[in-house]
């Protein structure tokens, strides 16, 4: 007989038909009540057994974390908290769990700190919090594909191994099969990558954008959804060395259309989670309410989780130029009172997360799309604007800033003019031998096009309310940490 999933059974009507469920024991009370979880839902199925019908040796093996198969019938529950329960006829131990060993791990039934859970990342998905987060993550991933598929986009599988630096920021993980102790050297004494596996220097991709752009020039509308790698030494609660990015790229879209797409897309996936992850979001919302109780007033979330998500759906993102933002920041209280770590003195300053958070959380109190940034603080591929009235150079960049998260999306209209792009690459020191193919696309029917990158983990943080990015990806990779 096939086993059934608990999520479905909890919705089912009582029935005389015999069924089997398989899962892991969350608790066992009075030799009678097994709370069973199989990962299909945050909720456990109560399985009721008649202790007299079982040998002591078997009862002693129904321990927290053990895997069991329970066969019986679904009956109306006498207890509170659940509609139905399983009246057990047989219990089979599928995988034992020694209580003494369990007690040493996060599987022991008590509250564990998130830091402790991180150290046992191989077990943490069996806690309520991580079960909920990872189910929401999976739902969001599905929603991403659903959105693009419903809107006429093709997924492009861009390479993970590349020979170029898509962001021009030099934050790449090198790849090599050369002997690190004895690498071949060229005449100048440098490592001779011509003798390496790819016969050139190669690295893990920081972004699929450049390849996606070439595909948008043929398929019109494409998106990528894959892992990206950054060797930036940022030990923050919002940075990973390996994260998943979604990068749509659309031919004929200008920056305004790009903003419209990004806003529509985020709202769609957030709504999908609200509609399809009700129980997990309930749990996560309560978790945050409990967590907030131990925090000082100023650090508590201004809105409950679901209200925050609904707020995003209902309100237009505020679109603000970089120049306007600088004016707001310059005359802001924290700037005047020197409360910012980096004071905003003049136009051209790069915005730090304290500034982004001020704009979103204090000034506008809603998601903000900042656009038209100074050319020299943004990547080489962004389309150059005509100089402004004061002769300053800006590019058609956009960043979406979210409350509690900061930058969730970065994107731009791309420089489609061959000469302008070539000059930009020259002045920014982007090697043409690496990106000749990218440049060449500007020769053959080059058109206006735009795209953006959404950091998937930052989206999952926002939707689940988790405050550390290490807690929304199964096995986080950060500086000094590649365990598991
Ligand atoms: O702003 P970024 O660097 O933009 C790009 O990579 C462009 N190629 C995207 C495009 O236009 N197609 O990164 C995009 C997003 C950021 O807004 C952020 O959400 C996320 O990726 N991100 C990170 N997330 C986690 N850890 C990191 N180290 C991240 N770096 C960027
Ligand atoms: Mg960015």
TrEMBL record:
EC assignment: 6.1.1.22
GO cellular component: cytoplasm
Subcellular location field: Cytoplasm
One biological process term in Gene Ontology: asparaginyl-tRNA aminoacylation
Predominant subcellular localization, coarse grouping: cytoplasm
Domain Aminoacyl-transfer RNA synthetases class-II family profile: 134-474
Pfam families, alphabetized: tRNA-synt_2, tRNA_anti-codon
Molecular function GO labels: asparagine-tRNA ligase activity; ATP binding; nucleic acid binding
Keywords from the UniProt entry: Aminoacyl-tRNA synthetase, ATP-binding, Cytoplasm, Ligase, Nucleotide-binding, Protein biosynthesis
CDD domains linked to this entry: AsxRS_core, EcAsnRS_like_N
HAMAP family per the UniProt record, alphabetical: Asn_tRNA_synth
Protein name: Asparagine--tRNA ligase
């Amino acid at each position: 007989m096939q086993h059934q999933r608990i999520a479905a059974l909890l919705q089912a009507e009582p029935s005389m038909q015999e069924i089997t469920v398989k899962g892991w024991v969350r608790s066992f009370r009075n030799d009678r009540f097994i709370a069973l979880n199989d990962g299909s839902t945050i909720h456990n199925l109560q399985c009721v057994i008649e202790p007299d019908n079982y040998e002591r040796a078997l009862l002693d093996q129904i321990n927290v974390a053990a895997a069991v198969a329970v066969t019986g019938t679904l009956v109306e529950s006498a207890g509170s908290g659940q509609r139905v329960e399983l009246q057990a006829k047989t219990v089979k131990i599928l995988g034992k769990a020694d209580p003494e060993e369990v007690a040493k791990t996060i599987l022991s039934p008590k509250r564990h700190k998130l830091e402790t859970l991180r150290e046992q990342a191989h077990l943490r998905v069996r806690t309520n919090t991580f079960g909920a987060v990872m189910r929401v993550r999976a739902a969001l991933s599905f929603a991403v594909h659903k959105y693009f598929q419903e809107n006429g986009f093709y997924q492009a599988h861009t390479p993970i191994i590349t020979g170029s630096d898509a962001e021009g920021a030099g934050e790449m993980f090198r790849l090599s099969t050369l002997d690190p102790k004895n690498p071949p050297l060229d005449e100048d004494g440098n490592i001779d990558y011509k003798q390496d596996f790819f016969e050139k220097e190669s690295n893990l991709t920081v972004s699929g954008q450049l390849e996606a752009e070439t595909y948008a020039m043929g398929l019109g509308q494409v998106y990528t959804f894959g892992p990206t790698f950054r060797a930036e030494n940022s030990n923050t609660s919002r940075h990973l060395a390996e994260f998943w990015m979604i990068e749509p790229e659309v031919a004929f879209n200008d920056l305004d259309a790009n903003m419209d797409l990004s806003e529509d897309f985020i709202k769609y996936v957030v709504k999908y989670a609200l509609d399809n992850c009700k129980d997990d979001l309930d749990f996560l919302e309560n978790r945050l309410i409990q967590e907030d109780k131990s925090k000082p007033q100023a650090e508590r979330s201004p809105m409950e989780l679901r209200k925050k998500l609904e707020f995003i759906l209902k309100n237009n993102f505020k679109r603000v130029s970089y120049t306007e933002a600088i004016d707001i920041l310059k005359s802001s209280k924290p700037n005047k009172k020197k409360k910012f770590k980096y004071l905003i003195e003049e136009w051209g300053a790069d915005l730090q997360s304290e500034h982004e958070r001020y704009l979103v959380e204090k000034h506008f109190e809603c998601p903000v799309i900042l656009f038209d940034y100074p050319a020299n603080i943004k990547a080489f591929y962004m389309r150059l604007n005509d100089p402004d009235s004061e002769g300053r150079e800006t590019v058609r960049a956009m960043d979406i800033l979210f409350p509690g998260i900061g930058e969730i999306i970065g994107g731009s209209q791309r420089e489609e003019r061959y000469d302008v792009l070539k000059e930009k690459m020259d002045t920014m020191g982007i090697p043409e031998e690496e990106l000749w193919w990218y440049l060449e696309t500007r020769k053959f029917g080059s058109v206006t096009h735009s795209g953006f990158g959404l950091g998937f983990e930052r989206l999952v943080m926002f939707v689940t309310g988790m405050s550390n990015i290490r807690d929304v990806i199964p096995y986080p990779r950060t500086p000094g940490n590649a365990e598991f």
